[in-house]
Amino acid sequence: MKRTISLIAVLLTFVLNVSAQNQMGADAPQLEFVMQLKVTLGETYSCGETQHGRRTVIPITGGTFEGPNIKGTILNGGADYQLATGGRTEIEAIYSIKTDDGVYIHIRNRGIIASGGAEQGGRPSFYFRCAPQFEAPADSKYAWLNNSLFLCAPSFSQGFQGIVLNVWRVK
Description:
With 171 residues, the protein is mostly beta strands.
């Protein structure tokens, strides 16, 4: 009798785990491409080692962005504030963009860059992901940016002097 109960318990646990895994897969978030930003940068400077780590500031001087439902320019005057400690860098870029139809949108983009060892071929690898938050006018056609979560990652282009960021909305 105890053996039958134990066997039933093991089977029930297995069925519940499989069911939970199937449900998690069905509800997994999807990503929808929103835009690509081509950000031009000014001269990097460092505040040196602080009580929190090595502080570096990279001025944002301009650029462009474009996606299926949005297009415009990146405004001069923002910056990427980086704090490096032990193989990991926390980043916080604060800047604004202006759409082609004249709407100003504020962006605060937080993320991390972490050393990932070496890839095949000996090149260093790293993890670089961010989560931009948008502040668009609530009465604009871009208000949808206020009500979603976003992820971004860099892509590298030899023909562009700056950083290229691809942004996706988490659906």
